[in-house]
């Protein structure tokens, strides 16, 4: 579905992402981990057109994403949730999801259809009944589910999830993990997921990609990553520095 080749992103003299190759398959949940500053968010930004790579290509179902604007990438079927929750707090829960349903779809969607998709996404994440609440009044956990609903309302083929577990209790992390797994199982969505909370990412991913200082240092099943020497060293380096 998505095949990235030699993706490189520089900021001045800093190579934030350095010649990275990876792929995401149909209905696959792939984790993206690595110490702080490893280049994870930058890699997401290269996919979504926010920071196009200086080199490399990103093929999505036979189409080149490099050169497309963030809007075009979204409309092509790649949704994204953000690390810092970006809800419009004064707007209602339904209005928040409507923005995803209207702007994320490639075909032009009527307002009625957008509202149906938004309500459906809210039901999917368990926020039905809260449509008229102000988004700012939701708990952190519910605001994270709302972020997922915004992404899913665009009916994407791939959703990029950025550190959705931060600040949640173990039970809430479990719930959000289940929503992500159901998105794959029931809606056929592929997931590329940055997460620092290892238990969450180890439990549901098919594969994990590890970045360190911009380079891909491992790509394998959770079991393989757990016992990978280079990965252990990268995280130890982080603790020591
Ligand atoms: N817009 C930017 N301009 C300049 N440097 C940047 C920019 N965005 C990121 N960087 C640098 O690129 C490197 C990779 O940062 P990035 O945010 O991608 O890492 P990360 O793995 O997502 O880290 P974290 O886990 O802390 O979120 C860092 O050294 C960072 O300072």
From TrEMBL:
Signal peptide: none annotated. Pfam families: ABC_tran, BCA_ABC_TP_C. One of its GO terms (cellular component) is plasma membrane. One of its GO terms (molecular function) is L-phenylalanine transmembrane transporter activity. Keywords: ATP-binding, Nucleotide-binding, Transport. Residues 2-238 form the ABC transporter domain. This is Branched-chain amino acid transport system ATP-binding protein. CDD domains: ABC_Mj1267_LivG_branched. The keyword Aminoacyl-tRNA synthetase does not apply. InterPro entries: AAA+_ATPase (IPR003593), ABC_AA/LPS_Transport (IPR051120), ABC_transporter-like_ATP-bd (IPR003439), BCA_ABC_TP_C (IPR032823), P-loop_NTPase (IPR027417). PROSITE patterns: ABC_TRANSPORTER_2 (PS50893).
